[in-house]
Design a protein that fits this description.
five-stranded antiparallel beta sheet, alpha+beta, 161 residues, 8 strands, 24% helix
Length: 161
Amino acid sequence: MASLPYGRGYCATAWEPAAKSDFIEVATVFKAEDLALCVQAVAEWFTTPRPTAGAVLLAALAKWGITAHSDDIGMSYAIPVDQTTPAADARNRPHLSVGDRSPSIEHVPAAHTGWTMFLHDENGEPIGEPLFISGDGGPVDCDTDSATIAELIADMVTYPI
């Protein structure tokens, strides 16, 4: 763990061994001004199995009976507006896409920076501006944020636009 330049916060970076005595950077676990959140993020990183912000969102959606489908690269989830849509067709029919303000859903919950949600048409193209954006780029409470967007998604798939 190292402090950010000019005393603006803390950064925790994960590394793994590469060739002989070399290391390769795996991920930025946390980068912000809150030391307590940084410590929490590092602790979550070492937890087995490692918790993710995406898993928190999926659990919040499950409370509403909502199914989400991953894009298999850990960037976002597709939630079909018609929940009977097969997983293989989720992104080929009207759906909501939810991603983190950071470019991944696989980071630990303490490093969550807010959800962004778009409505997509049957061709997978986003329609208009985001329907939901939370956070300002810094860490936000993943449990609360996930519960908020899950309730909004439940309303939207129950009463589509």
